[in-house]
Amino acid sequence: MNLDLFSAENDFIKLDMPDADVVYYPELFSRNQSDVLFETLLKTIDWQQDNITVFGKTYPQPRLTALYSNNDQSYSYSNITMYPKPFTKELVLIKEKIEPISQITFTTCLLNLYRNGQDSNGWHSDNEKELGKHPVIGSVSLGEERWLHFKNKKDKNQKHKIKLQHGSLLLMKGKTQEYWLHQIPKTKKVIRPRINITFRVIK
Ligand SMILES: O=C(O)CCC(=O)C(=O)O
Ligand SMILES: [Fe+2]
Q: Is Transcription set as a keyword in this record (predicted)?
């Protein structure tokens, strides 16, 4: 598969958020490329469901996850430590497609599988110490569209939301993680699964 065909990386939207740098590329991958990537990742990724501990309470994470990398650095959040597997062929293709746009070389990706509308990702920022001070996070979405919400850490009335489309890239850079939280809320609608791949640098 040649991911350079039909690319639309010149079409992007910069979100109007103070103390943040968030850029959305709605059609980074064509419909057909996105369909193939979704089906392949669904089958080939080693999806797992971890228990998380938040405020002393332990429960199964409301989605499946996986960690892949070109090194052996682990990633820890919410009392979970994940150890990576080597990148698959499709993950390398996606990484090579988003790196020139992101202007960074990623080492690692965390994958999320939201099986239905009850799966979610609670308010957080990607500010783990492994990621460094102003991390660049390249977030690719495949499958069902889901809303991503942002909330300012100091002024909780400052909010933004964006619907993440099949085949899109959302780049979060600069002070975004320092000043903003993000979440993927549940929805009562009956919906199909969604895969999200967040590329990161962990050295
Ligand atoms: O599913 C998404 O779009 C967001 C995932 C996310 O925030 C994360 O994995 O840190
Ligand atoms: Fe996140």
A: no
Given the structure tokens 């640098």, which residue do they identify? Answer: 201
Say yes or no: CB of residue 177 within 6 Å of ligand 1: no
47 CB-side CA count, 13 A: 16
| Beta carbons within 10 angstroms of residue 87's beta carbon | 18
pLDDT tens-digit series, residues 132-186: 899 999 999 999 999 999 999 999 899 999 999 999 999 999 999 999 999 999 9
Distances, alpha carbon 58 to alpha carbons 63, 79, 114, in Å: 15, 10, 20
Q: Are 138 and 91 in contact (CB under 8 A)?
A: no
- Asked whether the beta carbons of 52 and 58 are under 8 A apart, the reply is yes
The model carries a pTM of 0.94
Domains detected in the chain: 15-200 (2.60.120.590)
Q: Measured from the CB, is residue 136 less than 6 Å from ligand 1?
A: no
Q: In which residue are the tokens 């293709």 written?
A: 93
Q: For residue range 60-94, what is the model confidence (pLDDT) as tens digits?
A: 999 999 999 999 999 998 888 999 999 999 999 99
Rounded to the nearest 5 percent, the helix, strand and coil shares of the chain are 15, 40, 45
| d(CA 182, ligand 2 centre) in Å | 6
* Ligand 1 pocket residue status of 34, Cβ below 6 Å: no
